[in-house]
Amino acid sequence: MSKLTKLINWPVFIGSFLLGLIFVHLSSEPSEKILVYPTPINAGHIQYEDKAGVCYVYKTIDVNCPKKGVKNIPIQE
Q1: Residues in a beta bridge with 32
Q2: How many domains does the chain have?
Q3: What Rg do the C-alpha atoms of the chain give, in angstroms?
Q4: pLDDT above 80 for 2
Q5: What is the C-alpha separation between 46 and 61, in angstroms, rounded?
Q6: Model confidence, pTM
Q7: Does residue 72 fall inside a structural domain?
Q8: Is residue 25 part of a domain?
Q9: Per residue in 48-77, pLDDT tens?
Q10: Cα–Cα distance, 13 to 7 (Å, whole number)
Q11: CA distance linking residue 20 with residue 26, whole number of Å
Q12: 46 and 40 in contact (C-beta within 8 Å)?
């Protein structure tokens, strides 16, 4: 074991290791955001996050909708 520690130049080893970590970090591809819109099928199974960083889950409730006076609210992007 002492022969192995004599063969290793520790400052060079640590410096090259840190340089390798920095290279791997900088060369990695950025993560890809995938937009998933809520449907009755995936409601309750997927957690969403809005622009403010607040996480939430949709729950489905069956209701009777009126024929008139229905508002169309666009999805927040």
Answers
A1: none
A2: 1
A3: 27
A4: no
A5: 16
A6: 0.41
A7: no
A8: yes
A9: 888 899 999 999 888 888 888 888 888 876
A10: 11
A11: 10
A12: no
